[in-house]
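Run: sequence + adenosine-5'-diphosphate -> complex structure.
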Amino acid sequence: MTSELVLIKEDGTRIDGRRPDEMRPAHMEAGVLENAEGSAFVQMGKTKIYAAIFGPREAHPRHLAQPHRAIIQCRYHMASFSVTERKSPGMTRREHELSKVIKEALESVVFLEEYPRSVIDVFVEVIQADAGTRTAGLTAASLALADAGIPMADLCAGVAVGKVAGTLVLDLSEDEDKHCEADLPVAMAPSLNSIVLLQLNGRLTKDELKAGLQLAKKGTDLLYDLQKKALQKRFASYGEVPE
Ligand code: ADP
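>> structure
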């Protein structure tokens, strides 16, 4: 006898008891690593991610340098122990793809022209994965860039929406991600009200896409508040006059 996984219960709640529009508990901190120029930690449910920034520094090898702007180099990586089955430590095709989408999202908000001929290194290290790592990784990376004092038009805050057993849900967990009909990771530059990352795995109707984006906006607004709070906490003492 096979028991079927019930992703949406009769009372409309999800496998972990959340309402469809409810995020997992989220926690953020800025300035968590000693040796990086800027750093951040983001937790969304069981997903835990560190981001670290090095630079801006002179671009090497020299042929990478752009005369009128900085370049961003981004490495998204999942630790071998971040998933239930040991993951090979090297970079997989998926990790190369996610590095690229995170880099492109960051390039749309950082004032790159402030640092000609330079490189900014962004490291996103997934310590524990329970879905939503590309969006939480980008959320952490932009917080780390702000911690490094790199000028940006806005922060980036991201969350995945999914269609699970016919219902649109906010902030997919891995159980939901594995069995969903569609997975829609979205990241916003919240105060610019623009989308900086949008991918779709699976199929959604036009109306579902609209509703999914509205749901994602609700999530990213919440994450943006947490990002601002993390930065306020990090720099609270800077406004104090020394005795
Ligand atoms: P995202 O993490 O942005 O949701 P995916 O949809 O590709 O990206 O992955 C969903 C989840 O699947 C990951 O967060 C992780 O929990 C799990 N996962 C991804 N890659 C692996 C892997 N190599 N081994 C085990 N689990 C993985």
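>> summary
The chain has a mean pLDDT of 96. The chain has four helices and ten strands.
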